[in-house]
Amino acid sequence: MADNDWKARLGMVYSTNPDFKFDTESESEEELLPPARQNLRVWLDRKQRGGKVVTLVKGFVGPEEELQKLGRMLKTKCGVGGAAKDGEILIQGDHRDRVTDLLGKAGYGCKKAGS
Predict the structure, then answer these.
(1) What is the pLDDT of residues 19-29, one digit of tens each?
(2) What is the chain's Cα-based Rg?
(3) Which phi and psi (to 5°) does residue 39 adopt?
(4) pLDDT per residue over 98-107, tens digit each?
């Protein structure tokens, strides 16, 4: 039944090759680097946010679930909201020093970036 899932083939163009097999395997996720090998950058940003400052953590290498866990830990420790998606963690407010300290204590390699 799974081999005949027409939704997985929506973008497929017709092939005249009689031996053609459509590959529906999804992309493999990135492997999680150990925290000491992560090269995270902590930025302050206010672009397209109505003048409000946010702290951005960029450069995470690993699956989306691990990014969500790290983002949840940082948001909880800072006591603020935010989001974790597309390889970035967004923390509401100016918490760059606190986030850098928390990541360092957790064993992550991180640096402050930007002005």
Answers:
(1) 877 666 655 56
(2) 20
(3) -120, 80
(4) 999 999 999 9
